[in-house]
Design a protein that fits this description.
The protein is mostly beta strands. 0% of the residues lie in helices and 52% in strands. Strands 2, 4, 5, 6, 9, 10 and 11 form a seven-stranded mixed beta sheet that branches. The protein is globular and about 40 Å long.
């Protein structure tokens, strides 16, 4: 069964760091691409990071460019999003997404206090 199960997130002070995890079942994270999106209250869902299946291409568009690292671990079949220098405006629900299969993780709340 294809499933994306997220963990991590929570409350952090401005300037802090968090790592989000996306544990995958049903396909290999080192074969298929993975994206991360976020959705702030009252706003649409926006792309924050992308990694290709081979891992040789990443896309880290604004507004979090320079503060993110996207990676994956074959042994755990898990994708990761490392976030640094967090700002209050980064507060949102973050989602992992498997574009090949059109499947979303359940989302995890990230709250950054000032």
């Amino acid at each position: 069964q294809l499933q994306l199960k997220q963990s991590g997130g929570g409350l952090v002070h401005a300037g802090g760091s968090l790592t989000l995890s996306c544990a995958v079942s049903g396909f290999s994270v080192t074969t298929y691409p993975m994206s991360w999106y976020r959705q702030a209250p009252g706003k649409g869902r926006e792309l924050v990071a992308f990694i290709s299946g081979s891992g040789d291409r990443t896309n880290l568009p604004n507004p979090m460019k320079g503060r993110l690292t996207i990676s994956r671990d074959a042994a755990n079949n898990t994708g990761y999003l490392q976030m640094a220098s967090l700002k209050p405006e980064d507060t949102a629900v973050y989602y992992c997404y498997a574009p090949t299969f059109g499947r979303w993780g359940q989302g995890t709340q990230v709250t950054v206090s000032s």
